[in-house]
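Good day; I would like, with your permission, to put a structural problem before you. What I wish to show you is a protein chain and, alongside it, a tokenised description of its three-dimensional fold. I would ask you to consider whether the tokens describe a fold that such a sequence might reasonably adopt. You will find the record immediately after this paragraph:
***
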Amino acid sequence: MVQSVSSLYNNASPSTLPSQQSSKDLKDQFLKLLLTQLKYQDPLAPMDDTAMLAQQAQFASLEQMQNLNTNLVSLMAMQNVTQATSLIGHTVTGKDANGFPLTGAVTGVLFNNGSPQLQVGTNVMPLSSVATIG
């Protein structure tokens, strides 16, 4: 049985995860902007409470979307690990790390910057380079 796996691979890895520092910076920037708006508002025409609540709700929604994105990228990275380890013992065809054709049984899995690499004999094949599984 031969299956094509080139469309199954995703490029998620721990290195593609959004940093927590940038999320904190966004919160700080939002709060500074909100305080600046409040500080310089016209006392005779103050900011509408509903507008301020809407901004806070949008910020909370943005924060939750960032958290969801972080979780999805982590899940995709774990899926890559599962895909790579499930190929141990199977014969694969694809290209090695240098782009040369390679066919052989997968004997192990290595990780390069969080990206799974298949050990095929003495060669290494990136998971994204697997064309068929036999």
The chain has a mean pLDDT of 81.
